[in-house]
Design goal:
It is elongated, with a radius of gyration of 32 Å. It contains 18 helices and 20 strands. The chain has 536 residues and is an alpha/beta fold. The strands form 5 sheets. The chain has a 6-stranded mixed sheet with strand order 3-2-1-4-6-5, sandwiched between helices. A 5-stranded mixed sheet has the order 17-16-18-19-20. A 4-stranded antiparallel sheet has the order 10-13-14-15, with no helix packed on it. β2, α3 and β3 form a beta-alpha-beta unit. α10 crosses α11.
């Protein structure tokens, strides 16, 4: 190991005594890696792919085989007509070569039970990749990852010339691939025509581009972590554009969909503004961003869970459908638009209709026409009813010049087991919030400090203090009405649940939000004007 310089040896120490598959083309980089791994005490399996792109490629394969034999290293090789693969799959030549090469490396690694797959990419490769990304307008200039799956690239920080010097000391020759000098290949053109010009003017160009890649990879990891923390209830409009792009990318990758940078920008932009964007992806799949939400697949609709009265029928939308709501009769198409149902899904939503129009719309939660719920004997929506009780408590607080927030806790059977309203002014204690009072009342009523099977229903999005109390009590479900842009802990200001607390309640927001918001506005306006608020 004495011939191996420390800065080449240190990245290879994790592989001492381990079997690894190493790609060996015959060039200086890969030959140096093979020799260095042997000196480091690893057990490399040399893997060579003959791309069948050059007349001398077969000679390269023979040369690598002879080298491996001379070093007593196991050797595996394959010849693949990469040009034919590229033509058949619609890939460009460089992409096809990369895919076929890593497929071979993966198969050999599995066959030999290798601990990892190593490639000999250096700082020069990293710098070239970053520059190519700049020219292509890529969103993230992280270059070549040091790790991806089982693949490891231990020498990304090592200059190419250090490897040539190492081989010279060993007296080890290598092969030069003629395609590396062919400007028809983008990377070869950048290597031979562009980088020398840049380096002549900026001697540290290669190191600088590698630094850009390192910083970009770190930034990307941090932003991806933020995107992964976004919960279903958090308002996406408040997120930075960089986080939203990664949120969209995460969703598309998770759904197995192919996409381009432009698709990410369109969808993330629509999420940021709350507008609607319908995007057709390369595989002809359509995805939609609307109302601050991303829809990657057709929705699943709830079916009617009640018996249909005589003359009522289940069907889907037709032109001219109308539904009678408390606010008046409206076109069904306008209702579905307001609910932010993606355009492609609107015709699939189940309806129950009668001679009097649409009576029920199978969205979640369902939309009922005036009087329809009573006509079929359906039970009232428990969350709607519970929020009604919380609103009554909020009105009591308003009448006493308190911040108009009310809360109830529903027990495992759906019955109210705790009630509370703000009493901060009366008690001279700014911690006397409605949620805390309701939680204390529920714990006393049930005789337990834990409310895992319970639901906290509150008229205003909880603040961090009240959400923390709900988490400590292990509340299973939190339902709130109006958003809290000044102190909300579920996305109004921040999303506390983005962090891991050992307990993650489900969250439903916006239940009777309009009523809760109107009560808040009326109360504060009355306080400003110095008049009594009756809470009605």
């Amino acid at each position: 190991m004495s011939a191996l310089p420390p800065h080449l040896a240190q990245p290879l120490t994790p592989y001492t005594g381990q079997t690894v598959a190493v790609g060996v083309s015959g060039g200086a980089d890969s030959v140096a890696l093979l020799r260095a791994l042997l000196l480091a005490g690893a057990r490399p399996v040399a893997v060579h792919l003959d791309h069948a792109l050059r007349p001398e490629s077969a000679e390269d394969a023979r040369w690598v085989a002879q080298l491996a034999e001379s070093l007593n290293a196991p050797h595996e090789s394959a010849r693949v007509d990469v040009a034919a693969v590229a033509a058949a799959r619609g890939w460009n030549l460089e992409d096809a070569a990369r895919r076929v090469r890593y497929d071979l490396l993966g198969r050999v690694a599995k066959q030999h039970r290798a601990a990892a797959i190593l490639t000999a990419h250096t700082r020069r490769d990293l710098a070239e990749t970053v520059l190519m990304g700049v020219l292509r307008g890529e969103a993230v200039l992280s270059g070549i990852p040091a790790e991806r799956g089982r693949v490891r690239r231990p020498w990304l920080d090592v200059p190419r010339e250090d490897l040539e010097a190492f081989l010279t000391v060993l007296g080890q020759p290598w092969r030069e691939d003629a395609s590396n000098a062919d400007p028809a290949f983008t990377r070869a053109w950048i290597r031979r025509e562009v980088m020398p010009v840049l380096s002549a003017r900026f001697p540290g160009a290669e190191a600088g581009l590698a630094r850009v890649a390192r910083y970009a990879a770190q930034d990307d990891a941090a932003l991806n972590e933020l995107a992964a923390r976004l919960t279903s209830h958090v308002p996406l409009q408040k997120q930075p554009a960089a986080v939203l792009r990664r949120y969209v990318r995460r969703g598309l990758v998770g759904a197995g969909l192919s996409f381009h940078a432009g698709h990410l920008e369109l969808l993330a932009g629509a999420l940021k503004t709350g507008e609607t964007a319908h995007v057709t992806l390369p595989d002809a799949r359509e995805v939609t961003a609307t109302g601050g939400r991303l829809y990657l697949a057709a929705q699943r609709w709830p079916e009617p869970d009640f018996s249909l009265p005589p003359g009522w029928q289940r069907r889907t939308r037709q032109d001219g459908d109308r539904v009678r709501l408390p606010s008046g009769t409206r076109k069904l198409s306008d209702v579905l638009t307001d609910l932010k149902i993606p355009r492609r899904d609107r015709s699939a939503a189940p309806l129950v209709v009668s001679g009097g129009g649409v009576q029920w719309v199978g969205v979640s939660p369902p939309v009922w026409a005036v009087g329809a719920r009573e006509a079929v004997g359906a039970a009232p929506d428990p969350m709607h009813s519970a929020m009604g009780e919380a609103l009554d408590l909020a009105r009591q607080a308003a009448a006493e010049q308190e911040v108009p927030v009310g809360a109830v806790v529903l027990g495992p059977d759906g019955a109210v087991v705790g009630r509370g309203r703000n009493t901060s002014r009366a008690d001279g204690d700014m911690t006397r919030h409605a949620e805390l009072a309701a939680l204390r009342d529920a714990c006393s009523h049930l005789g337990t400090p834990y409310l895992t099977a319970c639901t906290l229903v509150v008229t205003l999005e909880p603040c961090p203090m009240c959400l923390g109390a709900a988490l400590e009590a292990r509340v299973g479900h939190i339902v709130y009405g109006a958003a809290n842009p000044r102190a909300g802990a579920l996305g109004g200001v921040t999303d506390v649940l983005a962090s891991h607390w050992g307990h993650a309640p489900t969250v439903t927001g916006g239940v009777r939000a309009g009523e809760a918001a109107r009560l808040l506005r009326a109360t504060f306006q009355g306080i400003r004007e110095g008049r009594q608020v009756d809470g009605s």
